[in-house]
Prior knowledge:
By secondary structure, the chain is mainly α. The protein contains 16 helices and four strands.
Amino acid sequence: MPYYRNTAAHQPDALDAILALRPAGADTAAKAVTNLENRMKGAFIGRCAGCTLGVPVEMYSVMRMQAVAMETGTPFPPTTYWKGSDHPEYVHYGVNVRADYLEPNLCQVPVDDDITYVILNMLLLEKYGKNYSLDDVGQFWLDVLPYACTAEDEALRQLRSGTKAAYAANSNEYIEWIGAAIRADAFGYACAGDPAAAAKLSYNDAYLTHRQNGIYGEMFCAAAIAAAFTAETPLDAVAEGMKQIPAESELYKALVWAMEQNPANYLRARMLLDEKYRGMSSVHTINNMCAIVFALKLGGDDFTKCISECVAIGLDNDCTGATVGSIAGACLGFDRIPAYWYDKFNDTVRTYIKDNGSLSIEDVVARFVKLNG
C-alpha cells in the first residue's frame, strides 16, 4: 500500500508536546567527551566524505549506480570516490560541476546543501547563541542564504514575501521531507555528549520549514550525532537519538522496525525499504532515516563500509551518506578514518553562503569545539 502521512494527535509540532511524548530515558545527563577535537574532526570530515561520495549518484537507482560503477571502474558498493560520471558537467548549486566530486579531480570539499547547512547553523549559533529564536533563523536565512531546495526553498520564498518565520511552513508540501534532517549536524556538534540538549537546540531550525516527522527527523539526527561523541558504537548513538522523538510517531516506529531488521547487504536493505514504504517519496524523512540505520548495521565500526553501503542503498544518498559519515566519524574519531577519504580536501570546504564561499576545515572544527565551551 502507498504511504500516507499520519496526522494523528500523537505527532505534535510544539516542542513541549514533543518532549512530553518521548519514551522513557530521554532526559539523560550529558556525558563528558574524551578527545573532543579528534571526534569533532572525525564527525565533520566524515560528513564531508559521505556527502562527496554520494553526490555523483544522488537519487540514482541501484541499477544505474551499478552501471556507472562498471563503466568507470569504480568498486560497488563504492569503497573509493567515483572515478567517473554519466553526467560530469551537471552544475551543483552554481559552483561545482559534478566532475569536481570525482576521484581524479578532488582538491577540496565541493559545494553541497548537506555541507552548507552545517556551516550555516554554525554561523547561526555563533551569532545568536544557543538561545536563538525562530525569528533569528528566519532573519539569518534572509541575510545570508541565496537559494534553497524544496521545503527550504518554499520557506525562503515565504520569508522574502514578508511571512513571519512561525508561519513559513504552513503551506509547504514538503514538510516531512529530509531537508530538516540534513541541517541537524551543527546542533549535535555544539552539544557533543548531550543528545537531549542537541534535539532541543535543533527544534527552532526545524520548525521554520517542517512539521511532524520532518521536525522529528532533525531532532533525531541532532541527538544521534551528539550521542555518537560518547557512544560505544554508531548504532548505540542511533538508539540514544531515538529517545528524543515521540514514541508513537511514524518516525519512531520506523526506526524501531529498522533496528529489528538484519539485512545481509545493500540490495536486501533497499528491498526492505521499497517493500515497507512503497509509494513514499525517495526524499522523505522516514525511509531515509531507516536507510541510515541499515547502513550503520552493515558498516559496523568500519568507516568506509558505513558510507559505502549507505550510498549503495540509494534514495537520497548524498544526504544519508553525509549523516552516516557524521555519526560514524564522531563515534570512531578522526584517527580511524582512512586518509584516503580526506587527503585531497586540502583543508578547504565550499559553501554557497554569502561571504562564506570557502572555509578552512580545521577552522570549522575548532569553532565547533569552541561552541561546546
